[in-house]
Amino acid sequence: MLLRLLPRLVLLPSTHTSTSTLLRPSRFPRRLSFSPRLSALSHLAAPETVDQSDNEGEPHGDVQIKLPLDRLFVPPGETADAEQSENEGASHGDVQVKLPLDRLFVPPGATVDAGNQESVSARVLKGSNIVLGPYARGDAQVVNADFVKSSVRPDDCPRDGLPEFALVGRSNVGKSSLLNSLVRRKRLALTSKKPGKTQCINHFKVNDSWYLVDLPGYGYASAPQEARTNWDEFTRNYFLSRENLVSVFLLIDASIPAKKIDLDYASWLGQNKVPMTLVFTKCDKRKKKKNGGRRPEENVETFQSLIREYFGAAPPWIMTSSVTNQGRDEILLHMSQLRNYWLKH
Ligand SMILES: Nc1nc2c(ncn2[C@@H]2O[C@H](COP(=O)(O)OP(=O)(O)OP(=O)(O)O)[C@@H](O)[C@H]2O)c(=O)[nH]1
Ligand SMILES: [Mg+2]
Q1: What phi, psi does 69 have (nearest 5°)?
Q2: Any idea where the EngB-type G domain is (predicted)?
Q3: Structural domain of 66
Q4: Alpha-carbon gap, residue 216 to 223, rounded angstroms
Q5: Are residues 110 and 224 in the same domain?
Q6: How many DSSP H helices and E strands does the chain contain?
Q7: Which one of 27, 99, 137, 146 is separated from 2 by 20 to 30 angstroms, measured CA to CA?
Q8: Which ligand has the shortest distance to the CA of 222?
Q9: Of the candidates 333, 312, 341, which has an alpha carbon nearest to the alpha carbon of residue 127?
Q10: Domains in the chain: how many in total?
């Protein structure tokens, strides 16, 4: 059972939530204070950010939100309580979804008014649990993107202090492909069917004002043990020392069942207070497979339920495909709000 394999250390009681736990360690002076982990995350998704005064009849923490079906991932089974809209005139398949508020990622500066369902509905990014807040700006779209440099040590990385987002995940999960999808270029970052293609920290400058960082994958079994360990250490050092790292985007293959190595990685990021967004990749691969045979939505839900056990609240997550470009605009909006918040604080 995967749960038993996860380190117990990362489980902290939500009572640890306090303003002080949201502050970054002093060596990360500019890191976002809303690290999606443990107590920090529980603060963000906690009812204190939610005005439930008009919703006294609802069970604690739940809200009836009228959402177009295509705007929200409804986990199969237990959490979805969807029924056809009573509004016969609705043309977009609107449903009443019983969505626990603590499964939403509410960014700093944003509040969720449980009494205003239309407003919440309009602000949840499609295929995600991410609420769009006031820091998302018109700068979300990519106008230009350029390769800047490959680094073999964290110290070699660009030093201009621009905000950056790092794509990390198992070899072959689709990091370089996602980067290409985000910047609408086919081969800006090199991709391959063979794992282990990306072998350095690669910085790409976007709109001359922020970076996307393509990292080597972890868990590549064919590499010599020593090399694997070094890359792992190298990447983790970068996460811990990079002051202008706004958030890590941890990519998880949604076409296969959850893997221990990915759950461990998410736990490690949480333990080390590295801000994290879960990006589920390959959501276009919908055919049933002999091994597991589960749909991406089911794998996404399973992964989150395993993470939930070890986090105070749900981290931001989003479903994507670099083949169909699902989630591209949504990720860019999410990056925009993280970036603009980071720049102002
Ligand atoms: N169907 C599908 N295939 C994808 C998707 N994203 C990536 N792939 C394929 O997965 C393989 C690996 O993609 P890469 O982007 O090179 O993966 P990576 O994570 O950068 O791999 P490393 O650099 O080796 O760590 C390629 O054959 C891609 O075409 C996706 O969203 N859907
Ligand atoms: Mg790559």
Answers
A1: -55, -35
A2: 161-341
A3: 44-123
A4: 12
A5: no
A6: 9, 11
A7: 99
A8: 1
A9: 333
A10: 2
Does residue 196 carry a pLDDT above 50?
yes
Q: Would residue 36 count as lying in a domain? A: no
Task: Output the ligand 1 site: residues, CB below 6 A.
Answer: 169, 171-177, 191-193, 195-198, 216-217, 281-282, 284-285, 321-323
Q: Crossing angle, helix 260-271 and helix 296-308, to 10 degrees?
A: 40
Ligand 1 atom closest to Cα of residue 217: 25
Q: Which atom of ligand 1 is nearest to the CA of 320?
A: 31
Whether 16 and 69 share a structural domain? no
Name the closest ligand to CA 231. 1
- Residue 177 alpha carbon to ligand 1 centre in Å: 5
Q: Specify whether 139 is located in the same domain as 285.
A: yes
Ligand 1 pocket: which of 172, 173, 222, 280 to mutate (most atoms <8 Å of CB)? Answer: 172
Residues 250 and 287 in one domain: yes
Atom 2 in ligand 1: residue holding the nearest Cα:
282
pLDDT higher for 206 or 76?
206
Q: How far is the CA of 40 from the centre of ligand 2 (A)?
A: 30
* Six-digit token string for 167: 């794509």
Mean predicted lDDT score pLDDT of the chain: 73
Question: Is the complex ipTM higher than 0.85?
Answer: yes
